């Protein structure tokens, strides 16, 4: 039983890339990456997603500003905006559904579309890395999601879930240590005690990692960093935004 | 510029597996697969997911029943239940947050956790397939999500997003044609006309595909199949369920 191969090595090497060389991504590379994305599983074949390849420099600069001034959005040759998309489905099914109720606006279908686009995007990330390209996911496009949506012309029932910088990496890729396997993997039943207990060891690992990276000035454990994050009232507009776009009506 | 490699070939080969050989998945295989899942990107390193490996035969049978009698859930050696998990975060951050507000219950954090678990699961799917194992995603566990959650002992702020059958494939894997690339890939701006227009050609492809697969008895195009799906009031309990679990409070 062989437990190693090229693909596993690739997955293990993954790290976010935030510096890119000034080299374009070719049309052929982009097509191969998006075609790989399309091969991901999709709930009942709904394919409820779209992806916008932003290559226009002025548009990238605007998006970078809206996402919290993340310079790598401007710097990367292609900025992919991954969108959950129930608009296409609603439009193409209309002729079949005259007079019938339809439920594209349910919370369930929001989840279906969100999962569909995430699975496709992760395949794209793996495909890109297999071609020696690098990526970083950008949740920051949800900071000012209304402006981002307007800028990209997103209709009702489409929302931008995250961006993804794509390009040729400049410099080495960093990897942060992950939670112990036992913290995320449960057997036959959720083990609430174990998952919390495992964080103690991880807090030590992350504290040491921070100390090394900051030359001793910061040794915050993971749980303290997470506390700071949870205490921030981040993107509290999301619920109203999604409703305004026609999602989660029921 | 090389546009092909082992990983791209693997991604292109993907198809859902619904028949499994009576061969166990080893502990080593499971660990490698979940470790690969953990290497996926995660929003600000929150790692807001858990996965429950169900190997108990009686439990698999119960879950199969709750998910709409999908026999492969019982047949596969390991049924993975992928959960969005903000419980662990809330518990480990509590000591740091005495008296402070915290926002784990926001719609934004529901989305963060849902994306986190989907990215991890897709890495697991790719890792499994690289080891010649097969998978199928099971959205059906949301049919009776309250019972599934109770059966697996899921606490507040944890919800089962989807299941995943894992095992050694028996027989060939089918692939359904996907939307044309131009239907999902937009340039610099969402193209509402093009995405709808592209479905016409796809409707022909899917209609022919159905006709061949059913020996001529069914030639429903994709848009008609999707219409039937959207017209079904599927899982309308999701909104109340998620709120009851402590999500989407704001």
Automatic annotation (TrEMBL), chains A, B:
Membrane-crossing residue ranges in chain numbering: none
Superkingdom field: Bacteria
InterPro entries found in the cross-reference section: Flavin_OxRdtase_Frp (IPR016446), Nitroreductase (IPR029479), Nitroreductase-like (IPR000415)
Molecular function terms from GO: oxidoreductase activity
UniProt KW keywords: Flavoprotein, FMN, NADP, Oxidoreductase
Gene3D superfamilies named among the record's database cross-references: NADH Oxidase (3.40.109.10)
Residue ranges annotated for the Nitroreductase domain, each copy included: 13-168
PANTHER family in the cross-refs: OXYGEN-INSENSITIVE NADPH NITROREDUCTASE
Family: Belongs to the flavin oxidoreductase frp family.
Protein name: NADPH-dependent oxidoreductase
């Amino acid at each position: 039983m062989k437990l190693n191969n090229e693909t596993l090595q690739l997955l293990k090497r993954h790290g976010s890339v935030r510096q890119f060389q000034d080299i374009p991504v070719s049309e052929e590379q982009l097509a191969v990456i998006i075609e790989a994305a399309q091969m991901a599983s999709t709930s009942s074949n709904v394919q409820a997603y779209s992806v916008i390849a932003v290559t226009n420099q002025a548009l990238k600069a605007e998006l970078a500003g809206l996402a919290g001034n993340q310079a790598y959005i401007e710097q990367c040759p292609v900025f992919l905006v991954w969108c959950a998309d129930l608009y296409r489905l609603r439009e193409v099914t209309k002729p079949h559904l005259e007079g019938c109720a339809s439920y594209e606006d349910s919370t369930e279908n929001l989840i279906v579309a969100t999962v569909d686009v995430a699975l496709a995007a992760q395949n794209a990330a793996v495909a890109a890395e297999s071609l020696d390209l690098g990526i970083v996911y950008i949740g920051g496009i949800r900071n000012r999601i209304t402006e981002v949506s307007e800028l990209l012309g997103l209709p009702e029932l489409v929302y931008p879930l995250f961006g993804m910088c794509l390009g040729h990496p400049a410099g080495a890729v960093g990897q942060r240590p992950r939670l112990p396997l036992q913290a995320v993997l449960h057997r036959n039943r959720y083990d609430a005690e174990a998952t919390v207990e495992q964080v103690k060891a991880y807090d030590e690992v992350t504290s040491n990692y921070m100390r090394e990276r900051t030359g001793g000035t910061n040794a915050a454990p993971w749980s303290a960093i997470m506390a700071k994050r949870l205490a921030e009232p981040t993107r509290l507009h999301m619920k109203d935004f999604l409703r305004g776009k026609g999602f989660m009506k029921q």
